[in-house]
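Rotation project, supervised by the postdoc (A.L.). Task for the rotation student: set up a whole-complex structure prediction and record inputs and outputs verbatim in this book. Inputs entered:
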Amino acid sequence: MGEEVEDMDQVVIANRLSDGLVVFLAAAPGSLQGEWKLRLEQASVASDDARAQELLALGVAAARQEQKVIEPYLIEVERTAEGLRPTLYRERIRCQGPTVRTDLGKQAEAREV
Amino acid sequence: MALLESRTDGPALVEDRFVRLADDAALPAEGAVLVSLVRFEKERAALLARKAPLGVWLASNQTPAAISNELDRLALVALDFPVFSDGRAFSSARLLRERYGYKGELRAIGDVLCEQLPFMLRSGFDTFEMKSPKALEEFRAVVGEVRVVYQPTGDGRATAIDRRLGRR
Amino acid sequence: MYHYDEYDHALVQDRVAQFRRQVERRLAGELTEDQFRPLRLMNGLYLQLHAYMLRIAIPYGTLDARQMRKLAYIARRYDKGYGHFTTRHNMQFNWPKLEETPDILAELASVEMHAIQTSGNCIRNVTSDQYAGAAEGEIEDPRIWCEIIRQWSTLHPEFSFLPRKFKIAVTGSEADRAAVKVHDIGLIMRRDGAGQAGFEVIVGGGLGRTPFIGKTIRPFLPKEDLLSYLEAILRVYNQLGRRDNKFKARIKVTVHETGAEEFTRLVEAEWLQIKDSALKLPKQEVDRIARHFEPPAFRVLSKTAPATEARIARDRDFAAWVRHNVAAHKVSGYAIANISLKPIGKPPGDATAEQMDVVADLADAFSFGEIRVTHAQNLVLPHVERDRLPELYDRLAAAGLAASNIGLISDIIACPGLDYCSLANARSIPIAERITERFADRDRLELIGEMQIKSSGCINACGHHHVGHIGILGVDRKGEEHYQVQIGGSASEDAALGRILGRGFSADEVVDVVEKIVDTYLAHRNAGETFIETYRRIGQDPFKERVYGAA
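Outputs recorded:
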């Protein structure tokens, strides 16, 4: 406690309007164009808060203008040997699928790839 | 802001002849005014002495019992929806029409959601303050979209039971 | 069961068309999410953790084989091959696409089903006794009155924007299988001194953040006055219910803060004004609806069921199934067969499309095409010839639907929790799965006897944890799933709220804790005593000591 907290890695997460599936924002730094991707690995990762806010602003603006995604927000992720992993268990479940049906959701699609 | 009136031949955009007075605004010598319940109770005599039409608006936490003895002196009662989800005014509207026999203009003001219009009509409202520039189109799109009603209300529409029993 | 007439059909079809237009406007960007959210919720369409979720009403828990097949079809065609039966006579699909929901609703409308008012601050799907029309000792089939309430509450112009959601439950018999005392309004059919049937009216029960057992505000209401009395209650609530705080907006808080006596006075005063209005039910209409609930063409059967008795004598598993899953029917030679949706280690209440089809076929073959859904997330075939139970059992077993645990410790009620629900703080299903695995042994199940475990993933209590004999509530504690345990609740006619045992537990600990509670009961019980009876006799302390160690 009391130590300098390092900026966490963050990505922008949302639901796609047409089918509700969880999507992640990918956008090059400084770009005004973003793309919504279905896999966490494809997300742009912000490693400082300024970049995170830039990504979020882009996501929110895109959600408003294009009306293709719902409620974008930032989640914290950590880099592991298996790839990106949300730090909160709620977001981990959101990014993988129901833990009681591992044959469904992103966890199942990842295995198929 | 558009004022929409539901008439027997359909909806129409109408001129709002009432000026909504703030509680501390000077009372104009002439012209129809719409005042809050607080102001009405405080300045009742002066307001009724004017020769112009008078309206009172009720906040969603004010019940129409407060004006039930004054209704024949009022040309307008407006009921406020502070947010569309605050549905108290639906009950107030029905009480005004069905219990207290109010026959004048009954207006929905505030956050009036277009999808609520059918419910408002059934509850007794006949004018609507609408924010949307396409209010007339919206009204036509949603009103009458569902052809059957189950509940008897003061609007007198034949319910499913009425139709089943061949009553109307 | 009830069948739509032209007016009912027209309403549901118009509603589908209306929603189709709303979805088109949303997909075209003409409506923002803020504008669209209330509209989609009015049709039971939620946005959950992984996708949309569509909640479909199964009014008062009754459906026929044709409707069940349609649910199976929807599961296959529009979802991922399964559905979830909830604690409120609803079916939830977890993966529908927004652009396809109007088509799903059109499919439902074609079999007289809908998703109207399965969400939002309105009068929700009315619930009832799953044994209605089949149970012994029923005053009347409560579904007649449920259907009358369903129609009256559908798109009610005055009560579609209430302070909060509103749930009504009706039972026609003394045995309360509909948890009427923990509903916003609970109706129990009663007879007055003159033998006339009517309702005891209970108001202000509920679970959630502040659980209450409902209070009787009228011991007897004549049947024809049902709708005017409901309208009076709803009107008082609509005007008086709190709108400043979502957690205090349910009618239970209104009744509590106003006082039951004063609340009753207000309702009675309002009722006097509208009692003789157009809401008074015409006899022809009640009779018309009642005709839909006339009993099926039961055969005259012998009291004895030799095939069933013989199989019981030689097949221990079948005997267990009959003992736990089969209930007495009012007609001689018939039985009520429960189909448990609680197999060991699987999510409570889930059914695959294939299982739904099997249940539909079995309903046709054994139960006049009728199926019921229970608030405990199981299914029922209400009218089965007692001597055909072996045949039914074999076909259920072949489809993985013969778990013999109705009312036992593995018959757990669980909400979807954080595996699906965006409101949840913790997972609920995995806890239930692990408890069923721990208590998988048949002898042990039998030894423990009647036991209700109920598990919710958040304070909203969709898993009814307050009224479980053992209730489990998932919370988030510093970023970890954590579980509070309470004991002593009941959802039956002796309704009671459980009391929290003490500090909570990690997901790893909670199954052990349940086991310790069960062991304490087994150590203390007198012969023939159920868990809840033992608990009421010895109180919480012995359980606490066992779980936390001596103080």
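Student's summary: The longest strand of chain C covers residues 215-222.
Supervisor addendum: The mean pLDDT of chain C is 96.
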